[in-house]
Amino acid sequence: MIKRIDIQIIRALAVIFVVLFHLEIAGVKSGFLGVDVFFVVSGFLMALLYKNGEAKKFFERRAKRLLPAYFATVILTLSASLFIVLPSELGQVNTQAIYSLFFSSNIGFWMQSSYFNKADFNPLLHLWSLGVEIQFYLIVPLLAWFFRKSKFFLFLALLGSFATCVFIVGISPKTSFFMMPLRMWEFLLGFVVAYYLTINGVIKYKNFSWLGCIGLLVLCVIPFVNIDGEALNRLQAHPSFYALLVCISTCLVLGFGLPKILENNAISEFFVKIGDYSYSIYLVHFPIIVLYLYTPFSGTKLYPESFIDKAILLILILIFSFLMHNFVEKRKFGNIGKVYLTSLVSLFLLTGANRIVPEMYNQQDQNIFNSLNDRSTYRCGKIVRITDPNAISCKINTEHFAQSILLVGNSHADAIKTTLSSVAMHHKYNTYFLVNNEPMIGNVLPPEEIIKEAISKKVSWIFIHYKSETLDLLKLNSLIQLSQKNNIRVTLILPVPIFENIPYYEGSIPKTLWQGKLSKLSYKDYFNENKEIIAQANILSKKFKNFNSLSVGNIFCSPICQIGTKDKHPYYFDDDHLTLTGSELLKPVFIEALNNSKK
User: Fold this and answer.
1) Quick count: other Cβ atoms within 10 Å of Cβ 442?
2) Are 576 and 500 in contact (CB under 8 A)?
3) What average pLDDT does the chain have?
4) Is residue 35 part of a domain?
């Protein structure tokens, strides 16, 4: 296949949009769609590069093309992290490196959190797309065999993957985002273009380059459209119909090319050069940004606040892209098996060295570092979303009792669910928990649906826990009324002290403890922050016989609100969410509430 200028141009656009998005440059709201462009281009090229019966040669060529720079990125990132980051984040980098060894970074990040969530430290997050690509390459020979039997299989696989992707995105957006089978339709669109609109990659219908021009124009505009990557609305979600528009636009360029006037000029030459470097740029840019902006206990920071930082980052990206492209990517490696084995040994040695690093710190420091892992599985876990995608709630405990409670709330309820469930178990209650993280917020799970779910699970008691500003008091009132009609008790667990938006705490309790600072928040501050919800709880307890509230502020504040134990086990893993250690403080409150229920 001859080198096509148009492909290099759209590769350049794709990587520029991704880099600008990761730098959080104003206006580039959906630059992550550049990855969708890469997937279509990759599918197009795989359809041309794979030759019948040459699976081994195909895999060797792909490995030589991708793996040296891929492993160099992982090894360099892990090595740099050894000297730059604290053990609290170093363990996360180790885990990401291990997943990358087996080309399953996408699965590792799917198990962790959403691509758009910055709570964790993820300098290798961008390798999720390489995981998807490599997993797709592994099935290319099988797909090609089926497609030779009948082109019907190509369209069936494409439509099936797209339909499943759109269906799942309305339930679990990150599953559609990270999982190869649900992204396969993007690669297969490239297959369709290669098979039907080109002859060995050479455009058949050259008189329709204006269609390619339209495709290019759409690609230039779409990253500036605000697309919510975590939305459950299937029309606006990602990957869904916006991704389809991006992929079709890419197909127009691949299938019909671009007018010569757009290809033969100085600007195009610049984009072609960027396209040549696109793989190296993609590999190095994200670790450089994340490591440069690293702040302990602050997750993944991407936005460089000063112009100088922006300039330095761009220079670093350019330098390391040049080095990666010219000294690794373009180098001819004879035995790719040795490259993989060497990378494997290097990564295991580095991960081993990194595991020793925490031992260099005293026990109190280690307690602080460990706080980022001092929490239970998020909500109901991943398996429920797959095995029962329509589930409204899940059962937390494994035992089976005659009575059940239902925990309602957002991420603050998630932080206490393990402690509440353990107390409930000893009092012979099952504990059910809502799958969705935003019940009674906006239009998500209104009180009527929660009561319907409670009845279906034979729940006799509902516990509610939110941060004060996120609890809708009108919906709380409605939920209590409906509960009373159905003979269900309701208990509001009042908000815990939070340190959000208090400059002294710098957004992280572990970081505050690491810096040797003490709490300055008092019970009076806590009361003033929550006085509206406390007052409303008192009114509701007098109005409804089935309702009461549990005070928790006095547990933490006496009168100063504590942020950790004497040996520095933090009570919070950020500025407002309790660790398992912190939630244990609430155990006496829960025990008393459940003991009183028997009186």
Assistant:
1) 8
2) yes
3) 92
4) yes
Neighbours of 141 (CB within 10 A): 17
Q: What are phi and psi of 587, to 5 degrees?
A: -55, -45
396 and 258 fall within a common domain: no
Task: Give the gyration radius of the chain's Cα atoms.
Answer: 27
> Average pLDDT for residues 225-242, to the nearest whole number?
88
Sequence length of the chain is 599
- Whether residue 363 lies inside any domain: the answer is no
Consecutive H or E run containing 128: helix 128-149
Q: pLDDT by residue (tens digit) across 53-83?
A: 889 999 999 999 999 999 999 999 999 999 9
Per-residue pLDDT tens over the stretch 522-573: 999 999 999 999 999 999 999 999 999 999 999 999 899 999 999 999 999 9
Pairing of strands 429-434, 461-465: unpaired
The model's confidence at residue 157, banded by pLDDT at 50, 70 and 90, is very high
Q: Are strands 489-493 and 547-550 parallel, antiparallel or unpaired?
A: parallel
Q: How many domains does the chain have?
A: 2
Strands 393-395 and 429-434: antiparallel
Q: Provide the domain limits for residue 406.
A: 372-596
C-alpha–C-alpha distance, residues 189 and 191, integer Å: 5
Considering only CA atoms, which of 594, 599, 568, 593 is closest in space to residue 582? 568
